[in-house]
Amino acid sequence: MKRLLILIVTFGFIILSYNYYLPKDSITTNVFKVDNGFGYSLISQNRILIKQEFIPVIQDQKPFCLEEDAQKTANLVKEKLLNNERPTVTLVELKRILIDFNCVNLH
Questions:
Q1: Which of 43, 29, 73 is nearest to 55 (CA)?
Q2: pTM for this structure?
Q3: DSSP-assigned beta bridge partners for residue 87
Q4: How many Å apart are CA 32 and CA 9, to the nearest integer?
């Protein structure tokens, strides 16, 4: 868990640095199927900025239960990037956008 947090923070700083060179309308989202669920990616200028194959902030690496949940989260992260914010997501934010955690047994 600690390694994952360090990786997310480091990756966030890289994205923030790169974000200053992004045309604001050039980020697209892509939802894709993974084993037992869905993930998402954010793409700009034919480069993958973020590829997220599991729900962020939960302990186990579990994919999103629903395609719509992956899309809502991708949209949230995209908005953060466009606003020059860190692309990290909190559990509170995921609950606020009504992500379904039923398939991951979140306590």
A1: 73
A2: 0.76
A3: none
A4: 24
